[in-house]
Amino acid sequence: MMSELIIHPNMKQQGFTLVELLIFMAIYSVLIVILTGIFVSIIDVKLRSEATSDVQTDANYILARLDYDFSQASAISLPAILGTPANTLRLTVNGNNYTYTLNQGNLELQTNIDTNSLNSYNTTVSDFNVLRLGNTGGKNAVKISFTLTSTIADNNQFEVKNFSSTLGIR
């Protein structure tokens, strides 16, 4: 005797067919690809924003610190010769020497007491140049220029900006 499977009309079929499973997997895969693309775009925008912000924040701090120190300074001892560029700036502030130099990508301020890095760990400073301006017996002034580069890369590109300012003793 053959046993026959009798399906009662009120019984519902349980489970999924292979076709339904394949359709679900295709739709799910498309959604995962789209969401991954959106996530990667968000991360890129975040990195680009961080890099730009770090460079601008450090530049603002460095320029503000230089401006403040110049407002307190009584003399510029380096560079000593007018029209000669240098990579070191030395000011006399309240009888103390303030020396700005580059050291392994950091712009450092060395005083009689300690040495501080003026840029954060998210940026590096390069091409720090100081040009003594003015004429003999005139006002003491310098033109300072430097380049800030972010250490955060967005698609293997670093945020790089050049800055320049002219400062003088008042």
Quick take:
By secondary structure, the protein is α+β, with helices and mostly antiparallel strands. Helix content is 32%, strand content 39%.
How would you portray this structure in words?
This protein has 170 residues and is an alpha+beta fold. Helix content is 32%, strand content 39%. A five-stranded antiparallel sheet has the order 1-3-4-5-6. The chain has a four-stranded antiparallel sheet with strand order 2-7-8-9, with helices on one face. The model has no long low-confidence stretch (mean pLDDT 88).
Unreliable stretches (pLDDT < 50, length at least 5) are none
Major sheet: size, sense and barrel closure?
A: 5 strands, antiparallel
Helix content: 25-40%
**What's the helix-strand series?**
HEEEEEEEEE
How would you sum up the global shape? rod-shaped
Q: How many domain units?
A: 1
Can you list the strand order of the major beta sheet? 1-3-4-5-6
Query: What class would the helix/strand composition place it in?
Result: alpha+beta
Give the radius of gyration: 32 Å
Question: What is the β-strand count?
Answer: 9
- Please indicate the percent range of residues in DSSP E strands (runs of 2 or more): 35-45%
- What does the average pLDDT come to? 88
Q: Total number of helical segments?
A: 1
What topology emerges from the helices and strands here?
Elements lengths: L17 H55 E6 L6 E2 L1 E6 L2 E8 L2 E5 L4 E3 L5 E11 L7 E14 L2 E12 L2
Antiparallel strand pairs: 1-3, 2-7, 3-4, 4-5, 5-6, 7-8, 8-9
